[in-house]
Amino acid sequence: MPVNATIEEASRVRSDLPETAPSVVLQPDSDGIAVVRFDRSGSSVNVLDTATLRQLSAIVNELNRRSLRGVIFVSSKPAVFVAGADLKELAATEDRPGLVELGQQIFTRIEALRCVTVAAIHGACAGGGLEISLACDYRVASDAHVTKIGLPEVKLGLIPAWGGSTRLPRLIGLPRALKVILGGDLMPGSKALKLGLVDAIAPPERLTFLAERFVGKGKPRGSFRHWAWIPAWQTVAALTRKSVLRKTRGHYPAALSAVDVVSKSVVRSISQSLAAEKKAILALAEGDVSRNLIRLFFLQDRAKHLPAPKAESIENTAVIGSGVMGAGIAQWFAARGKAVLLRDIGPGQLAQGLQRAEKLFSEARRRGILSGCEARAGMDRIVPAEVAVQMNSIDLVVEAVSEDMQVKKAIFADLEERVRLDTILATNTSALSIAEISRGLREPTRVLGLHFFNPVHRMKLVEIARGELTSDFAVDTAVAFVQRIGKLPVVVKDRPGFLVNRILLPYLLEAVRLFVSGARVEAIDESMLDFGMPMGPLRLLDEVGLDVAGDVGETLCRAFPDRMHTPDVFAQLLAADAKGKKTGRGFYEYRSGQVAGVNRFAISRREADDKASLTREQLQERMVFLMINEAARCLEESIVDDPRDIDFAMVMGTGFAPFRGGPLRHADHIGIAKVTENLERLARSRERQFAPSNLLIEMTRQEKKFYSN
Question: Residue 486's domain spans which residues?
Fold first, then answer.
């Protein structure tokens, strides 16, 4: 009887296996082939915790007692093979050495089984899931889009330590193994096949038959491809280490540790390399970097599962405005199966918007995110409209035009006449008042902010801004919709700049003030790159556009005139058509989209030179402490109620150094008293923007932290 005929018999296991075996079961063998099935009880995800590993250990013992031709490892979950280790247990357990040893021992025993072993991968196969697969003789994967394969441990501040750092270079060679492990990305089955991570791919319904065919091939001959790298391993390691340091500036020790362990694995025995894996991961797991990155992982998971009890389903959408943001939003909706009506004032604007969307679909196809058919189907879901039409079938409208309050109010007044009473009306504004936009409407309860970040196809965060009159129904529906389209929501109160821009703007303004008062462009940006930001603040202003940043700045400066004002250099640069990258010059000059040097016109706008001698640490403190101070004010004003929301939003929305955990976590680490004292010192020198918030002053007095652990 073929193996797939026994799939429904998962409950039939030997009585000498653990009685509580909800996570992994051994099915009866058929024609000499047994199936080990991962199916974590009460969960949509398979993870490897101590209990599951012990169940797997008992199953491996049983497999050793049987006379079998082969064993096939499969999953019952529709979208997950094995998602990796249970991070909650890894973070909480006091016996990390025991957990690491247990996984290593079991996977080594799987590798040593006398029969042929095949991992039949359908769904996410990450971390420990791939390490199980690497211990097998063969790996086959489905061609479904839910199948994603990789080792993401470095992104969590760890390294693969259940054999992944040891076995992967033996399978695909040292350079490729380093690329896979250091990248930390999950790849589709087709890419995994090209790299040699899997031996074949097939449609999901044919996967078990394919696995049976590989059992019939018998044990594979040993692969010695990794031996070719023994003479060159030191050179490969040195070059890779240099590249890692250039990209990370030494802030991510897991990447450097991975280079060391993976490179040396080709000149060590398996047991020696496994010991090195264990030593490395135990050291990394104790560090703040790994703790902060794992905490960020949990915050992302928290956002994915924010409760939305009053939510209604959204299928048909409309986007008003086909500029960069509007086209990006429309493309994202359509790629996630939503029908999109794309509205703009004329055929020229619509044509440009459709071209932008088509370009995004083409990029997704090239990167293997979408197939050609899926990209074409997505593009077909976008229906352009250059004239106003009735929208009785539309569930959600997102307005994405320029930051002009009067324009937005006119659009919303018109929309109210064209949509159903229960249609959600959202604005993509990054700073303007939701209450003001909805003033005068008959149904202001359905109006909210839905702030996507640029570029839409890369940035996961979406701020959901709740106006004073916005209903629970509207907020819950927006939260659920954002989650369903693969974005991460954070709900914020309707205040100028909402959350992310409110905290980010003082940092950007201070960077400009430092420049005007003599600090070099390169020194300002390099100081923040050294801090861990993905881009310097002046370069970021160029990327965003000085005109766009100026609009947001104007809104916030009007709201907080006592501590925020836009330096004159903004107006001077805009008058010279230096709007940033899009016009070829801002604080930098650009050639073919690449930085070609500092804009000499900008340098000529400097007014003094009293900040030219500041050290990088002093530059960092002036900019970062302003972010911390504004984040504390946001918490004080209850824009969000939880410091985790602030840190999560700043990391996901601005790239705030993830390894530092966010501005408030960073404040706890360096000491809130130090932050407050420095702010007070700077404020005494007539720099009013540094006046510490009441919350920081009170927390310093009471010796409190933002987080309890």
Answer: 316-494
